[in-house]
Amino acid sequence: DKHSENYNTLMRQLNPESRVNIFQVTEFDVSNMLRIKAKIDDGEWIFIAGDRSPPSGSSRTVAVEFMDRTAYMPIGPYMLAHALACPVDLLFTYCDYTATDKSIKVELKPFADQIKLERKERQQQLGRYAQAYAATLERHCADAPYQWFNFYDFWAKHD
């Protein structure tokens, strides 16, 4: 999408050797799944914004408690990780305003060796994964409250 292209352009300007490749997946069709699986098999990492509303709408979200309010997190990251049978880590980045060079701090936290979803309990399991993510995100927001960026009404009523 537009924002990803701007980001890619900026990364290439800062470092022409950058291997960052951002693309938006609006549907988990066979061709996208094979493309993502090939990247994982080649040792690449796939990053998904786990707190952004999916392009497909609110039907692909689950309710969680986040900062003492109900919020809706996407289920896509967990569905994709389940389909790909790959490990999931959480990535957090912060601008270190105390450093003289304004460096970026990166934290990578293990989340699940594999996302397991059983057909009979899929919705409950998705809710548990999303709640675990929301709890971790909440702790990071408490530690660095000015470094979580969402540009939409995050707690909007779910329809």
Describe the structure.
The protein has four helices and four strands, in the order H-H-E-E-H-E-E-H. With 159 residues, it is an alpha+beta fold. The chain has a two-stranded antiparallel ribbon. The chain has a two-stranded antiparallel ribbon with strand order 3-4. The mean pLDDT is 83.
Summarize the structure.
With 159 residues, the chain is of the alpha+beta class. Helix content is 35%, strand content 18%. It has helices spanning 2-14, 30-41, 76-84, 122-143, and strands spanning 61-66, 69-74, 88-95, 104-112.
Structural class: alpha+beta
Mean pLDDT: 83
Low-confidence stretches: none
Strand order of the largest sheet: 1-2
What overall geometry do the principal axes of the alpha carbons give? Answer: globular
What can be said about the biggest beta sheet? 2 strands, antiparallel
Q: β content, as a range?
A: 15-25%
User: What's the total count of β strands?
Assistant: 4
Per-chain topology:
Layout: H1 2-14, H2 30-41, E1 61-66, E2 69-74, H3 76-84, E3 88-95, E4 104-112, H4 122-143
Antiparallel strand pairs: 1-2, 3-4
Keywords:
159 residues; alpha+beta; two-stranded antiparallel sheet; 4 helices; 4 strands; 35% helix
